Amino acid sequence: MLVFLLILEMNLNIFAVSKQRDSTMLNTKMIGNKIAEARKKTNISQAQLAQRLFISSQAVGKWERGESMPDITTFNRLAEILGVDLNYFSESFQSAATETTPVEPLVKPSDELPSGKQEKKLKWDMSRGNWVDADFSELKNLHEKFSSSNMQRCKFIGSDLSGLLLKSNNVDSCDFSGSDISSSHIQGSNLVNNLFKDCSLKETEFSGSNIDRCDFSSANFTGTEFSKSYAKDCDFTGADFTGAVVKSGGFEKSTMADVVWNRTSFNATYIADIVFDSTVEDCSFENCSFKKVTFQNATLINVFFKNTSLKRIRFIDCQADRMTYEFLKQGNADLTGISLLTPKGGNE
């Protein structure tokens, strides 16, 4: 009977003339206030309520402003969501006495999910964007969603960018210091004047990219591959290139001070205007092109050189083991700046 009276009351209100709006029957303004009151008590937004009703948030806004009213079918669902019964929308109902029940969250915690299912992680799609002077520090869950974008003077400090796909991007004057960019793919991109200090770039692939005036000091390049990529005027001070592979690309006019060269492979690489000043161990230089390359105060151990000519390499106060020395000799290198290491680490 109450439901029937409510439906009758609503229909009378819709077709009532303006003077009837001051009567005891329901009116759109009163209903709108009640919807807003119950919604706020359940602590959900207009957008969340609209989502659960499969309507637009603009429609909810119109209800609460008294510009329109839900139909009776929607009223039933609305009452269920807001934790009230249909009597709540009656003008004679005392809203102060209303008790609402918390609305069920739109996303349940992972422990409430069915067995065998995991909560879906958020993923941001920042592809095809123009990002300027933005601070995305500590950004997470980006993964492959960052291609074909222009980024200028943005901050990504301390971000988790592991598994990132950076394809056809222009990245200029951005700060990635302290970020995890491991296992990522940087393809066909232009990186200019960026900071990658203390970054993890482990097992990251650089392919077909231009890297200009970037600071990679103390970065970890363990297992990283450079293919058809050129690094020019970059700072690699203190970087770790253990197990890195450089092929069909090049390093030019870059600072290589205190770099860890261990099991690093250079294949068909152009190396120019660079000074190697640390220990180079278990590395290989095969079919490389050298121009103004200097090994100064460096120790070369088990380093394989297979090149037609090593005449453009200069050695200053360096030490090398016997095998490395012979490889250099076969390549017609100038050995005057190299002294031989004995098995115990002394000089011959």
Characterization of the model:
- With 348 residues, the protein is an alpha/beta fold.
- The chain contains six helices and 23 strands.
- The chain has helices at 2-15, 28-41, 46-53, 57-64, 72-82, 322-330; strands at residues 130-132, 150-152, 165-167, 170-172, 185-187, 190-192, 205-207, 210-212, 225-227, 230-232, 245-247, 250-252, 261-262, 265-267, 270-276, 279-281, 284-286, 289-296, 299-301, 304-306, 313-316, 318-320, 338-340.
- Strand 22, helix 6 and strand 23 (338-340) form a beta-alpha-beta unit.
- It is rod-shaped.
- The termini are far apart.
- The model is unreliable at 1-8, 11-25 and 95-113 (pLDDT under 50).
* CATH class term of the largest domain: Mainly Beta
Strand order of the largest sheet: 1-2-4-6-8-10-12-15-18-21
Main pleated sheet: 10 strands, parallel
CATH superfamily of the largest domain: E3 ubiquitin-protein ligase SopA
Percent in helix: 10-25%
How many domains comprise the coordinates? 2
Helix/strand/pairing class, anyone?
alpha/beta
- Give the overall form: rod-shaped
Helix count equals: 6
Q: Order of helices and strands, N to C? A: HHHHHEEEEEEEEEEEEEEEEEEEEEEHE
The N- to C-terminal Cα distance equals 109 Å
User: How many DSSP-defined strands?
Assistant: 23
Q: Residue ranges: pLDDT <50 for 5 or more in a row?
A: 1-8, 11-25, 95-113
CATH topology annotation of the largest domain: Pectate Lyase C-like
Rounded average pLDDT: 81
Instruction: Return the CATH architecture of the largest domain.
Output: 3 Solenoid
Strand fraction band? 15-25%
Please state the CA-atom Rg, rounded to the nearest Å. Answer: 34 Å
